[in-house]
Design brief:
It is a single chain. The chain has a domain of about 250 residues: PPM-type phosphatase domain (Phosphatase 2c, domain 1), CATH 3.60.40.10. About 40% of the residues lie in helices and about 25% in strands. Strands 1-10-9-6-7 form a five-stranded antiparallel beta sheet. Helix 1 packs antiparallel against helix 3, helix 7 runs antiparallel to helix 8 and helix 9 packs across helix 10. The longest helix is centred in the C-terminal third of the chain and has 37 residues.
């Protein structure tokens, strides 16, 4: 699958040399941007090394990518994650060793963003504050989150963005919390997501990201000529002040032959993501984390009066209603009716207790399903995500316990009043 692409870099209006680098391997749909840092032009050395080393690793392991693309069951998604991580870790070691051998380059490092598209999956590896954006059906999504001091503190709830900018730390808002090559190893964010026909992608250094909005990204991608779009992105940054080096790497998926099917698929994914975000358990996840949860889900369709599960069966799945109406029955009596964006069966994620009710689709319904096994797997592998999920789960259970306690207290009080003599 040939993906249209374009790439352009510019020194900007404030710097005297360019510390950004980019790399593309068209035949593998591999795209990369790196923004270097360090004195005595060491930043441009770091970013150049990152790109060259990463490309070398990818090309040396192209068979892994090709096998995955061909559906070879010996290669899993995890193998692609490992390959991208290996590419960045190898770059990290090379940059670090170079800095140790030359005193003028001590402390040099670089941000790194890689996008690898294989069939209908996009794989991202991310370190630093360069960014990857996706434009889909006129909607712009920032796929990565910055590893910067301000962003990390805001994400952890220490500050709001406004509070941070008004604090004594404001001058350090762009200080990186992660960079490739400063130390011998680095923690890399890796994840994958569904790619659809017509999707457009922008990988950029922070010298461009500083000036971007959803509106000017979407308008720029309106043009069919990606070379012209790349130039427009460079102009946006320079017209805004060009305070730093500017790099834009663009990629666009071919359009679908069946446009209606592509639109329906995009709407289905968008709605599913919205449903996940509204559920308390996933409320505090970033888009990147939410994608990881979405990847665990199965979208099932139930016909009217089709049973979802019987009372007394072992609970193994958590259900979230995307569209439709679900009936909860106990002892042959309907005790509740759930509709769009409601959920049920979440306790099956933590234990094997028998189902306390029978659940039936009342209307034609689409339901997202997560199994307990998949939930446990992501908790084991994604520690930061696990903390958020378990904390949200505890809060949900605490809320339910308080509600139950309050209802029980009201019932006991009412009973006592009934028993009191007149």
């Amino acid at each position: 699958m040939q993906i249209q692409h374009a790439a352009l870099t510019d020194v900007g209006r404030k710097r005297d040399h360019n510390e950004d680098s980019f790399g593309v391997i068209p035949e593998l749909n591999f795209f990369m941007v790196a923004d270097g840092m360090g004195g005595h032009a060491a930043g441009e050395v770091a970013s150049f090394m990152a790109v060259e080393v990463a490309k070398k690793i990818i090309l040396a392991n192209r068979e892994t990518i090709e096998k995955y693309a061909a559906g070879d069951e010996s290669v899993k998604k995890y193998d692609i994650y490992q390959l991208l991580d290996q590419a960045i870790q190898s770059a990290c070691i090379s940059i670090f060793q170079e800095s140790q051998n030359d005193a003028d380059k001590r402390g040099m490092g670089t941000t790194t963003d890689i996008l690898l598209i294989v069939n209908d999956r996009g794989f991202i590896a991310h370190v630093g504050d360069s960014r990857v954006y996706m434009e889909r059906m006129g909607k712009v999504i920032q796929l990565t989150h910055d590893h910067s001091l301000m962003n990390e503190l805001v994400r952890r709830g220490k500050f709001t963005q406004e509070e941070f900018l008004a604090s004594p730390y404001a001058e350090q808002k762009n200080a990186l919390t992660r960079a490739v090559g400063v130390y011998e190893t680095i923690e890399v964010d890796t994840f994958d997501f569904p790619v659809l026909p017509g999707d457009s992608f922008l990988l950029c250094s922070d010298g461009l990201a500083e000036y971007l909005t959803d509106v000017n990204i979407q308008r720029t991608f309106d043009t069919e000529d990606l070379e012209a779009a790349a130039k427009t992105f460079i102009n946006i940054a320079n017209d805004g002040g060009g305070h730093d080096n500017i790099t834009a790497v663009l990629a666009r998926m071919p359009q679908a032959e069946d446009k209606e099917a592509a639109i329906n698929k995009a709407a289905e994914i968008s709605l599913s993501m919205e449903v996940l975000k509204e559920i308390t358990l996933f409320k505090y996840l970033t888009y990147q984390e939410l994608i990881k949860v979405y990847n665990l889900t199965e979208l099932r369709t139930y016909e009217p009066d089709q049973m979802i599960f019987e009372e007394g069966t072992e609970g193994r799945e958590f259900f979230m209603i995307v569209r439709g109406k679900i009936r909860i029955e106990k002892g042959g009596t309907t005790v509740a009716t759930l509709q769009d964006r409601d959920h049920f069966g979440e306790m099956a994620l933590v234990d094997k207790e028998r189902r306390s009710a029978r659940v039936v689709a009342e209307d034609l319904s689409k339901v997202l399903v997560i199994t307990r096994r998949d939930f446990y797997d992501i908790i084991k592998k994604e520690h930061a995500l696990a903390v958020k999920l378990l904390w949200s789960f505890v809060r949900e259970l605490t809320t339910r316990l308080r509600t139950t306690t309050s209802n029980l207290s009201d019932a006991l009080m009412a009973e006592e009043l009934e028993l009191e003599p007149e």
